[in-house]
Diaminopimelate decarboxylase
Amino acid sequence: MDHFLYRDGALYAEDVPVAEIAATVGTPFYLYSTATLLRHYRLFDEALKGTEHLVCYAMKAAGNQAIIKTLAEAGAGMDVVSEGEYRRARAAGVPGDKIVFSGVGKTAQEMRTALLGGIRQFNVESEPEMLLLDQVAQSLGTVAPITVRVNPDVDAQTHAKIATGKSENKFGIPIARAREVYAQAAALPGLQVVGIDVHIGSQLTRLEPFRQAYQKVAELTEALRADGHDIRRLDLGGGLGIPYTRSNEAPPLPTEYGQLIKEVLGDLGCEIEIEPGRLIAGNAGILVSSVIYVKAGEGRDFLILDAAMNDLIRPAMYEAWHDIVPLVEPAAGVEQRPYDIVGPVCETGDTFARDRMMPPLAAGDLVAFRSAGAYGAVMASEYNARPLVPEVLVKGDQFAVIRRRPTFDELINRDTIPAWL
Ligand code: LLP
């Protein structure tokens, strides 16, 4: 459920007509709903009620500080994967002890920043990383709290580009070697083992792969405790999928996911961390765009939009489906027709949808890409020298630009011309 609904024939974001924001900000732009963000965060929080837990929002999904602050004020921690994300979270007011640091390629510089600024834990992904973190922590006269990310070798049954829990993926250490690696970690004075971490992939639409992975984590918890390690925290990663289209089979709900966690891991007495990104931000955001031209092609019509693959890469990158809806609600019974919906970028890959059934549209009409809140704005680029599009946040009947559109001068003046030219 989200808060982008038609009211009196027009698409609203909470209590604001989306067209009104478009008139102020210009298209394209990303638009987020506070109520939807909070609703999704609270679903997870409620689902784990009765168990000590922290929902660490995976801010890679949508990292604007206004979004982070909205969630942090409701109690969320953050999952970060780079110094940039760490600094963003801190700038938005998230305390260090609510930030977990994930990622396969943490640098010494990133480790230093987090150790000095405060960190809940590092989710260590390899032995070389473990050795480096030990050295960095010792050089600062401190001890780094860690979990080791284990790779449970389960099939997440999702798109190959976003599956992370198979042994051939670059993530984590093979679970079969976990005891050896924990023994090594325990011997390093700069590290303190606090738990185990696992994350098997994104956009999972079944609970079964989670169950398989979490059962392996439960067994490992017992084995590691028997080896004398203090396993008090389990970071279970993110990955719960969202419905991208109404006709889709609905993925499991956070309540069912929470039930599963309690069922498989509830008896261990561990604090639970989860790192959802997509389920919190995905359906809390839309991308609003205008039709530039309707072009009659050979046997098909093209809707050429002012948004392009550089603004929303998911269709080009993962063949992802996004519902695309007009801001003016189509009259009942209006005949739909197929369009190829494309952007202005000079690549055939700049195609959002083929043969998509839409009501008849004309130049100047506005449309919204639904479910674009996660992995939308954050994956945008300036390809074709197209400035990053603005982000806007709605709360009730108010809206605010939370990242403005850069000027062309800003874009151009980042280049420097060498003296020899
Ligand atoms: N934790 C870790 C360690 C992760 O790598 C990820 C996502 C998450 C949590 C959050 O997963 P989520 O709850 O959002 O599924 N760009 C792709 C998705 C990449 C996901 C990367 N890791 C897309 O647009 O589908």
